[in-house]
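User: Fold this one for me? It's Malonyl CoA-acyl carrier protein transacylase.
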Amino acid sequence: MSAQQLEQIAQATKTAFVFPGQGSQKVGMLADLAEEFSSIRATFAEASEAVGFDLWHIAQSGEGLDQTEFTQPVLLTASIALWRVWLELGGVKPKYMAGHSLGEYSALVAAGSLSLGDAVKLVNLRGKFMQDAVPQGVGAMAAILGLDDDKVIELCAQATEAAEGSVEAANYNAKGQVVVAGNKDRVEAVMALAKENGGKAIALPVSVPSHCSLMKPAAEQFASALAQTAIELPHVAVLQNVSAEAAADVNTLRDALTAQLYQSVQWTKTLQFLQDEGVEYIVECGPGNVLSNLAKRLPNIEKALPLDTKSRMEDALNVVLVAEGKIA
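Assistant: Here's what I get for Malonyl CoA-acyl carrier protein transacylase.
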């Protein structure tokens, strides 16, 4: 089937696929599906050969799963394995794709923009560069709940004025849910200010402060790796994190992937765009259900469906195929 035919099919649907980022990993992920679908293990074998280490072993044993240079290729591979099973079972092509942080790379692979082998090598490097950019214990991230976006930005500015270091809004995940990132003491200052202003604050168990200016050194290193990697425009529109829009050309796509390391993830705008474009069904293609839970908050989304177990895969297929008129 040609890229043009795929696009025509995709445009006819009211389904979007979203791909999760770091934090969705789980020891033993996809084990039950792998017993039934050989393509799961085959996808992990293909990706493992590209990076030179056993991604399935990491996923199942948990050894190294919390190290970002390993977490990222494992999660990407898990998402693509699920995507391949979805297609194998006759799942529809979505109208749009999007991925949260690391998940943007999964979306690009699924949409034919990057090969799986190139993508796992890229995100392995991405993880290394991110880890090396900020020494362990210097950076931090925290979820701020119950305050609007402007208030969180104001608190970040207030915390930054008070001392050296920086803290910024890193992920706009949903209304009343913003993740901040930066120097650990500045993040802690924002957490205290949030509580003083009637919000809640939860420290996140991460090893690097993603999507903030502390990641600029990593972005500079990563840009050269991206420049040497073959990328083409996706066959299905992929909304990019920094703009909540699909790139018009490959150079814009590359630039946005570089900027994604140190700029905010615009997930709230991404979900709003999907809703405005008539998307009614959102399928989360990766371990866990973090993104589908966020999507359920939108008033015009009929269903938000994870795929990461046999029963969830079956439920999502039935719901979407009925909704798209593929089965009665």
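One thing worth pointing out: Residues 1-11 have pLDDT under 50 and may be disordered.
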